[in-house]
Amino acid sequence: MNSRLLSVRWIRHSSSATGPYVPSLNTSFRSSHCCFLYVTNASLRGRRRLASEPDLETDIISRAKPVDVAVLLHSSGTTGKPKGVPLQHRRVIAAARNAEAAGYFRVGDELMAYLPIAWVGDFVFTLASGIALRFTANIPERQETVLRDLREAAPTMYFASPRSWDAMLTHIQVRIAESTPLKRRLYNWFMPLSIGIERDRLAGRSANITQKLLRGVGEVAMYAPLRDYLGLSRATNVYTAGEAIGEDTFVFFRALGIDLKQFYGQTENCALTAAQSSRDVKLNTVGKPLPGVEIKIADDGEILLRADSVFDGYLNDDSASQKALAGGWLQTGDAGYVDDDGQLVVLGRVGEVVYTKGGERYIPNYIENRLKFSAYIKDAAVLGAGRDDLTALICIDGGAVGHWAEENGVTYTSYAELSQRDEVYRLIEKTVQHVNDLLPKALAVRRFVNLPKEFDPDDGEVTRTRKLRRNVIEERYAPVIAALYDGSSGVDYETLITYETGAAGILKRHLTVQVVG
Hints:
Blueprint: E1 7-12, E2 27-31, E3 35-38, H1 41-52, H2 56-63, E4 69-74, E5 84-88, H3 89-101, E6 110-112, H4 120-133, E7 136-139, H5 146-153, E8 157-159, H6 162-177, H7 181-202, H8 209-230, E9 237-240, H9 247-255, E10 260-264, E11 274-275, E12 288-289, E13 293-297, E14 302-307, H10 318-324, E15 330-338, E16 344-349, E17 354-355, E18 361-362, H11 364-372, E19 377-383, E20 390-396, H12 398-407, H13 415-419, H14 422-437, E21 445-450, H15 470-476, H16 478-485, E22 490-498, E23 504-512, E24 514-515
Parallel strand pairs: 1-2, 1-7, 6-7, 8-9, 9-10, 20-21
Antiparallel strand pairs: 2-3, 4-5, 10-11, 11-12, 13-14, 14-15, 15-16, 17-18, 19-20, 21-24, 22-23
């Protein structure tokens, strides 16, 4: 392998720095005021030695073999104890080359190296791909200054988790609220316009001439300045991964002119398995497999991988290694399917898969999360295991739906009354239909009920972290569930509730069963 230099920039601000950084390599320091070049004594001694021993450079380069371990990382431990994952040089280099072949990485890209160093994403993006493709890595001063440093660095490639994108969106909204009246008016007029255009584009509809002209005006007046403020004015390869990103957040940044895309991977495959391309972004997929990566779906719905980037086994765990690499394919533990366009849809963990009466596979949590992407739905429980089709129990978000009701002249006196208004049912039906459009027809939610109360941890329906206790819900709402499947148009229901004061009471309501479509 040819010797290549990973260029590193440490971003410092004189107003907050507490002392000089002294790296062990020749490092270009870029601050908000000036640039410095620091050459350490160790580096000078190294250069003198290389000059005095002509064969030393070749010897050093040849010491590392492709099958040597480049890094020892650990699995997340979501299904058990974390396991050691040794990644060989040849594996991580193969991952970088696969990403380059697809155009997801480019020689000379510039990135922000702010990810946790124990995570495979940092090693593969910053170090392995950085060395193989000669990236410039900008290292922020500390975690709290990342957003400020991002603007200074203006990288060409940027990756952030869905939660980071949510935090960035919140930051934008707060700053807009604090800005001048003119800026607020520009934002409140141009952003809805571009979001509508982007939603139409994702649905396969093209913008008309008027929309294109207005979008061009907005590019100059608002979109480009806002991208520059965020530090993403030069970013052409922008990604998110790790979990499903909220639809509103995803569409917002794409509407802003940031080519945000989703990708999928795991530590055992050097983080790079599949990724969306700019030409075929979809809301519910993670894109097509990278060049050099083969994907197939097992009979039980598990996603299987085969590629040069797949690891060679866990550290000191032959049993787990044989299971993970059975048949020459990496058993990802994730369930999914490949859609008609060849894009991968990741549903969740295989252990969460359930089946309808007709044998259709689905993961309730996947559909529930898609429903909860709507601001109007706080919780949802999707039903259908062993039944003919899927239905849902919906808990509206009282604050968001209440605000909507006030703006649309819908009167109500309580959460229970609001949940049963016909106008609210039509509002929620639009969200359910939108989610249905992203699902195979066999897995569409056919009917739903708006519950008269939220799922409450004090009632044992959810945990303190809002995870559903499905057995409790199935038991407590048995009459409502029966009405969802017996053709009833509604059901009289009463339940014991616990108030914030600790007092208990009985809530009685007639609940409507809404047919979707």
